[in-house]
Amino acid sequence: MSRLLAAATLGLASSLVWAVGAQAASTPASVDAKRLRSAAQEPANWMTHGGTYQEQRFSRLDQIDQDNVDELGLAWSYRLDIDRGVEATPIVVDGVMYTTSAFSIVYAFDAASGKLLWKYDPKVAKTAARDGCCGPVNRGVAVWNGKVFVGAFDGRLIALDAETGDEVWRVNTLIDDERSQTITGAPRVVKGRVIIGNGGAEMGVRGYITAYDADTGEQAWRFFTVPGDPSKPAESKAMEMARKTWFGDQYWKQGGGGTVWDSMAYDPELDLLYIGVGNASLWNHQARSQGKGDNLFVASIVAIRPDTGEYVWHYQQTPGDQWDFTATQTITLADLEIDGKTRQVLMQAPKNGFYYVIDRTNGELISAEKYVPVNWAKRIDMKTGRPVVDMEKADWTKGPRLLMPGPLGGHNWMPMSFSPDTGLVYIPAQVAPALLEPDNEATWQGRGTLQLGTQPVALPEDPKARAEVVDMYRGKLLAWDPIAQREVWSQDYPTIWNGGTLATAGGLVFQGTANGEVRAYAADDGELLWRAPANTGVMAGPVTYAVDGEQYVSFMVGWGGIFPTGFGGLAKNTQVEPRARVLTYKLGGQATLPDEPKRKLEIADDIPPLKADADTIAQGRDLFNTHCGACHGFSAYSGGVVPNLRNMDAQTHDDFLRIVAGGTLIGQGMPSFADRLSQSQIRAIHQYLIKRQHDLAKEMGAGGS
Q: Can 324 be counted among the known catalytic residues?
């Protein structure tokens, strides 16, 4: 008998019981407090973002195991409406899947067949993409008592009828319409309240998280994560404490950052909600806070009461953050035996490169070790809990510094998972350095503009130099022992930005890859057991569920986000298209994935002659990288998600000023920049792009791309 056969047999019987129990619910998405608290006892469903309140992304389903996973085949697929970044975790309740795509469109499917039951489009303006640093993405919905909740990219929180998709209520979560606040994260529902944060720190906003009554949409409480205008009363004792750690008057004018744009977890026994707080704004500590202060609560985990939003404790991973080291990565709760004692812990692998194990009862640091190469800090001081920063290597406000990791992080938003069976955490880790150069006089420049306090982000325009940079970026699936704080096994990838992970009781870890595959590994030793083409890059975390006793695994797939758009020049070796789909697999599945040809990069006919001098080209380069690069690719290297401006045709050249200043392509999602750029600046950008088209023609002529 195989090592997993007995477990699989027992698991199948259990799955049948759980599936039948789930199907007996009387109303669609009838998730309530009791079901969410005991979600682990219903593995046929995936009822909340991380599977359970603990956010472990572990399933007790084991019908699919190490012995039969190679029999997985496609059960069904569905082509989503918009080919932009897909980052959602599907929610599956009682045989119905609820998920989202770019621009916050919500879909409900029959989870066994893929039949579309309903679709809801919140009609987010396509031009709103300018208000986010990293694309109009959405990480999914929450369900509760017959309602589906989605945070729209433009800041609305919307409640839908789970059976029909009809709108029940909506609220505007934004506090400042003049700032580029967005929602990309998935809401959570705790004790009858829908909880949602906001994004936009790179655009100059103030962070906060808000709870709304799930039945009515009435605001219950709001917790600010960074202080506001010091001439006004602080909103809470927590903000009184935080004010003492900020200096000068620029921080609140620039927004401060600290957005809660992704991770949360809830412990029902301790009645604590844990939130991950993002980076500071500006990135530049000197320009933001006179180079002084810890700047609470940026780059922190904060514990609050879900009934009132009252502060309980915090742990700041990166005091005075100036590296974009968000603490918004997956927060995972577990009980671990450490030094002979069971500890209630919170775990996280944030951007800064250290893996943290924290006592979730009081915020005490238990351990922290490097899980990827790190040069900005030597270690974490276990007495103080603070990083021992290597200022010579880390302080880029004094001059250019090559940082490990850079702002893309040792681990970005892609969810990690934890298996209680193996005791291992599975991290979509990456090596992603960055060169930062200071702009110490930076100030907030208005809505829709990256606010960093650095020199404009750029990539080498010389093909050989770019290839050397590309080779520095590597991805890996990392199996990490959180007790011993060491790597157990890993799988290497040719690039970063690989998908989130899912661990199962079948002894498996599922993950999608940036270069267009979905895979399953043995959870104990990392052996690759199954792979299938996705025909696009995969970023989101997969889920598993059962309907009528049959187990399914679903991946949301589609290429996008800041790496394929802004850093398209580094994403070149992925060679994938931004095709957005739901892909669902089962044992013996016979469906086929449509074969779509790849687009070819061609040299445009009749490239206009370059008329500008070197100074104008340099001005155009900086303006382009500041205002256009995050979507069209820094240094005009497109990742293929939005139009490649090194391949403009003659008509686009003729219409360039009308497009950028006049907004003639607003209907296609290209906003007017007349409020940000003068006509002479737009002409400088145009000349820079003409220069980059000539560069491309030379590269193509030399056999490059």
A: yes
